[in-house]
Amino acid sequence: MEMTEIIADIITRKESAGGLKQVYYAACGGSLGAFYPAKCFLEAEAGMLRTGWYNSNEFVHYPPKLLGRNSLVVVASQKGNTPETVKAAEMARAAGASVIALTWETDSPITKHADYVVKYTYGDGKDIAGEKTIMALLTAVEALAQTEGYENYNKFRGGVSKIDGIVKQAAASVAGRAEAFAGEYKDDTVIYTMGSGASWSSAYMQSICIFMEMQWINSACIHSGEYFHGPFEITDEKTPFVLQISEGKTRALDERALKFLRTYGKRFEVLDARELGLGAIDPSVVDYFNHSLFNNVYSVFNKALAEARNHPLSTRRYMWKVEY
Amino acid sequence: MEMTEIIADIITRKESAGGLKQVYYAACGGSLGAFYPAKCFLEAEAGMLRTGWYNSNEFVHYPPKLLGRNSLVVVASQKGNTPETVKAAEMARAAGASVIALTWETDSPITKHADYVVKYTYGDGKDIAGEKTIMALLTAVEALAQTEGYENYNKFRGGVSKIDGIVKQAAASVAGRAEAFAGEYKDDTVIYTMGSGASWSSAYMQSICIFMEMQWINSACIHSGEYFHGPFEITDEKTPFVLQISEGKTRALDERALKFLRTYGKRFEVLDARELGLGAIDPSVVDYFNHSLFNNVYSVFNKALAEARNHPLSTRRYMWKVEY
């Protein structure tokens, strides 16, 4: 089933209960990050539909008041076996919600607690338009379009049709920069990431999933607007930052951080969505595509960094190795 | 005017427009952190009322769809002159929203764009029940109680009446531990904080306002539930953590992180709300008082740390010194 049909089916089934009124997102780590643009989309674009964005274990222990028969809960787990997320799906269904599970492993524990299972694309050469982030965005866009209506629906679909080409061209264009980045930062013990708006989450994922998890480099993800209210005091000529300059409504926040880094910092890498080609997407929807662009361009930098550091991205201390 | 009266006044004024339907929180840095428990309160306890939690500059550039005549926007600024927050208040009023400004400086720019100005307590010996965090919580609690009703209202008010005594006793009890903490961590270049639920925000404030801003120590605030999905890979016998063990619904998330740190880490400080006396507050409302407890207990540690490092908490590189 296409996402359009899945959402239509959910709406039909909820008619007798008063309709679809909430779309919640629950996941852990990188999957939670991938859900952030969808949450931002509904907060910024929806009137009646409500949303929420939760770490799965927090969702299980401290759910939103309205979770119930009028809710859709979207969960995601790469291998479909993240225990907290499996539990979140189970709990959501027990509360009367419909559950969509996004996964790469369609024969996995989470599918037992899902009404709909959607397999997303993953790995080298994948279609970016089929990735977890876009699939999650489509749950939000379709839910909005099919309930209260979404005036930019066709423009959004246009963005989806363009994103794969934009990302692949952008990724190819940064190969040389990625090598230079790896050489410059391979011995650093702390690297910050920064972003804003609906793509704050790609900075979050780069910080927690790559620098911390896969490279054991200390890191934090700083919101570009929050930077000036505390974090910027750690800026000096030595401290490294990776700064996302998004295309869309919050670009001014990112540009302000860039101006400051140019004045008081020295070691920073800038990923500018406009330079990377995202301007080809309509301004009314472009905010929601920054995440996919940044997230995939980071991959080029990350492969180079892992090689320069002789620390493969698959190295772990605890994951897959110990009980926790 | 008491908060009860302010909210009653707002509800009366909005009657002709269809009533109060959204309560949004917009601020920067520490003030944004102080708003987080109020946002969590409404997500977990409210049916009809909606909420949102925004960095002021993001709110200005990328506001929620529903911002308008049915909205209350609560803003906060210590000196009342944070430019992005002044702008957020101005923008909110232009959109037809009512604005409550929480500040310590009642003759300040932000008050020009507020319908109601509330002065909170601040500084040594302050009444904790009058602090920014509790004032913000009261906007949420009163809004809920006076619209759709809040069954634990009296229990919440009971918590407010107890919090000052609990915090002062807790702060006195950690004096010795704070000295030992300062001695142990004074030469560290990175310290992580960790928390969950409605008090994740006190870990956020400790990370961005104290370690990064006031001590120039690298830091990140890790959500206890997210820790196991990336960040925990940086755990080793050297890396320092300050872990909040909250009282209430998400305590299990914090205890799980503690168990892991006890097994694989070595250098961590634990602030346990139960040990610090928060169990005196009713379980139905206790989640919302962790933040005030942790935030104020941190102050004892921070004074000792600043002294041991010979780096006063008022030292800045950029704030008050350069344009940005």
UniProtKB/TrEMBL annotation, chains A, B:
GO biological process, one term: protein N-linked glycosylation
PROSITE patterns on file: SIS (PS51464)
InterPro entries xrefs: FrlB_SIS, Fructosamine_deglycase_FrlB, GlmS/FrlB_SIS, SIS_dom, SIS_dom_sf
The SIS domain, residue ranges: 7-150
CDD domains: SIS_1, SIS_GlmS_GlmD_2
Top-level division of the source organism's lineage: Bacteria
A GO molecular-function annotation: carbohydrate derivative binding
Organism: Breznakiella homolactica
Annotated protein name in UniProt: SIS domain-containing protein
Gene3D superfamilies documented for this protein: 1.10.10.2240, 3.40.50.12570, Glucose-6-phosphate isomerase like protein, domain 1
